[in-house]
Here is the input.
Amino acid sequence: MTTSDLALGVLGYGLRGSLARTAHRPGAGARVTVLADPDPAARAKAARDLPGVRTVTDHREVVEGRGVDAVLILTPDHTHADLACQALRAGTPVFLEKPLEITVEGCDTILRTAHRTGTPLYVGHNMRHMPVVRLMRDIVARGEIGTVRTVWIRHFVGYGGDWYFKDWHAERRNTTGLLLQKAAHDIDVLHWIAGGYTRTVQALGDLMVYGDNPHRRAPGEPKHDDWYTTDGHWPPATQRGLNPVIDVEDVSLVNMRLDNGVLAAYQQCHFTPDYWRNYTVIGDAGRLENVGDGPGAVVKVWNSRRSAQRTDADAEYPVPEQDEGGHGGADPLLIDEFLRFVRVGGRTDTSPVAARMAVAAGARATESLRDGGTPREVPPLDPELVAYFDNGQTAPGRP
Here is the structure.
């Protein structure tokens, strides 16, 4: 492939349209040449944000059209399997926004299609490029807390009422549940840091706050202009213009056992006043914990002695600052890796196998919480697919 700009097609220009803007780098490696979205307002915004882009209503003009080197699929979760498989069968390299899909079966269909066609597949798990995540992983890899034994994650989704209960995210048919949609990020990070995949899950959850809110939009009514604010919509009961249907949980708790014996817990709440993620990783020789996950955050390590509660950790590492960009600078790094992958291939920090295993854990945990917390086994992935993707999407033994 030449060093000229890659011609990119885009499907969808909603909340993750920011990735299309990040990828649009005329003269610097890539440009978005065509974008499909059925919403005229989204197409108009894309035309303003991406100079020179051609906008269309039918995704097939992008997926099946000529002159596109790769496609970014940024559409709602339940559309991923159909759209990704169409692009893969057409031989067009795919960037697929996380989660990979909303069911285990959908994930496996995508992976089998990529394997059968040999078309490159990249999944947008941007948190693997977040400075706080990479710092924690480096600390673990250096052995500062010994061998990881347990991981506890708390996700305070302070803007959950705005971002997930006013549109398609609020409906099971589109997401399976927010435990899958949101936790796919954190479960993937958990797997990456702990060095294993979830095998058994048990979960509890409920729709505690937004389910009782009667202030819903009428079916077909667009989101209100003030659907999202940084300083309003508090307390949660003051939310207005919620989705007509809300049947996903707004709080969930999950226990997990990984295939390497690590025990983990994940908690997610969509009606907290603050928005951040807190990771605690405990090994057999210490523990680490992040305080904040953006600019100014630190990761603390306690590993020299036993003591009563103390805030003065044995080591304190500031989270490196990245250039501007979404998710603490992770989005530009994610796009950089994808463009490199399209040009030259090879292994990547993101992983289709890991993306599938994160969805599988989230899907089975959602089944558990809706069945009174009964344990569920997470199905393993076909070893042939594992080998293919772990080998950089090349069949083992083949260059």
